[in-house]
C-alpha cells in the first residue's frame, strides 16, 4: 500500500514539474531567443535581475485563459504574465512581469486576475508593487473581458495610490488602454530604443491626421523624458532600468504607514560646505549650477534626480541628509533663470505630493524671480498649473524646510514653500533677497514720476535702484517679520539642514476632516 502511495505521488510530482516547465518556457525557446536578440530580457530574467538572489516566490503559476470561442485551443502558458513576490535590498516587494513571448503579453481577463491578485496582496501586507510592462495591449480575442481586466487594474492603481509605492517599468510596447495603468502609478521608467508608450500608434495617426511618425518619435523614452514628462527615469536597457528601480525603492518606505529607511553614512553631519561661496554667484542675473549645490550638501554627494530632462528649470529628486531620505525641490538658475512655468509647476507639484504620500521630508532650495510671463503661458493655464504647486505644499504634512539661496520674488516666493504656505523652517543665505519683485522693476514702478521729472533720469534711476536694494534686497526685512527663521553661513548648510530634520523627525500635523481635497487639476 505504501509503495502504491509513493508511486502515485511520484507520478503526480512528475506531472506537476512537467506543467511547471511548460509555464517557465513561456512562448517557447524560439520566442525567448527572439526576445533576447532584440536586446531585451525575458519576463523571468527581469524578475531575477530586480529581486535579491533566490528570493522570488511565484503565484498563479498554473492560471489559464478563459475558453472564449476565439481562444479555443490556444496555448498561453502562465497566461502571459509572471507574478509573485520577493525581496529588493532585503525588503519585500510584489511584482508582475508581462511575457511578450506569450500572445504578445496581451492582457486577458485571467492575465489581469493574476496582476490584481499581487496588487491586492501588496496593499494588504504593506509593500511596494513593481510592474514590468511588455505587452501588445488588450487581448482582442477576449473582447470586453480584456477591457474589464484593464478596468480592474486601473481601479486598484487609483485606490492603492498613496497606500503603497507603485512603480512601472516600460520594457517594450505599451499602447492604447495599456498606458493608463503606468500613468496612474508613482513612477514610470523606460528603456531607450526598446520601449514605447502611446494611445494610438503611427499607422492610426497617419490614417487620421496624415502625420508620418516613427514609433520612437511618437512615444519613445526620449520623447516621454523630455517633452511629455510621462517618464520619470530613462535607462540604457532593461538591466539599467531595473537598477534605477532599486535606487527609487531605497528612498521609499514600504507603505504610507511606515517611515523611510535610514542608511548609515560616514559623511559627517557637521561637514562644512565652503564651496557654496564660490558656486552661488552674487550677481542675481548670473546663472549657477543648482545641481552642484545640492550634491555639495547631501550625504556622499549622491542625488537621484527624477525627470531630469523635463522642465529643467525645476529640479526634483531624492537624496539623504544624515542618513534620512529627503525629497529635494529646487529652482535651476541655469534654465530659463529658474522661473516657474506650466511644466515646472506640474513637475514639482506631483513630486511634492509623492513625497508627502510616503513620509519623505521635503527640502526646498529657492532662487526664483517669479512665474514665466507670456501670452502662451496664460492661455495654456499657468494660473491653474501654478495653483497645483501652492496646493501641494499647503497640503503636505511631512517636515518641510525651505532655504533661500539667492532670491525669492513675487508669487513664486509663496509657490516655493514660504512660511505662509506651511514651511516648518525657513533659512536664507546672507545674500538672499525677498521682495515682491527685483529692485530694477520695483524702482521703475515706485519712482517712475521722480525718474521722469529728473534732469538726469538714468542717474536717478540708478540711485533709486540702489536705495531699493539697500532696503529690500536682503533677507533681514523678512527675518525681522518672522518669515525667515535664520540667516546662515553657506558653509554651515549641511549641518543646519540635518539639525532641522532631526528636530522635525517626530512632526505630527492634523488637518480638518474631509473626504479628500480638490486639487486644481
SS class: alpha/beta
**Unreliably modeled segments:** none
Helix tally equals: 21
CATH-defined topology of the largest domain: 2-enoyl-CoA Hydratase, Chain A, domain 1
Shape: elongated
Mind telling me the CATH class of the largest domain?
Alpha Beta
CATH H-level superfamily of the largest domain: 2-enoyl-CoA Hydratase, Chain A, domain 1
Secondary structure: number of strands: 17
CATH architecture of the largest domain: Alpha-Beta Complex
How far from one another are the termini?
71 Å
Percentage of residues in strands? 15-25%
Q: What does the average pLDDT come to? A: 93
Cα-atom Rg, whole angstroms? 27 Å
Helix content: 40-55%
- The number of domains is 3
How does the major sheet shape up?
8 strands, mixed
How does this structure look, described?
The chain is 41% helix and 17% strand. It is of the alpha/beta class and 521 residues long. The strands form three sheets. Strands 10, 11, 12, 13, 14, 15, 16 and 17 form an eight-stranded mixed sheet that branches. Helix 17 (439-446) packs across helix 19 (457-472). The longest helix has 23 residues, at 2-24. The radius of gyration is 27 Å and the shape is elongated. The mean pLDDT is 93.
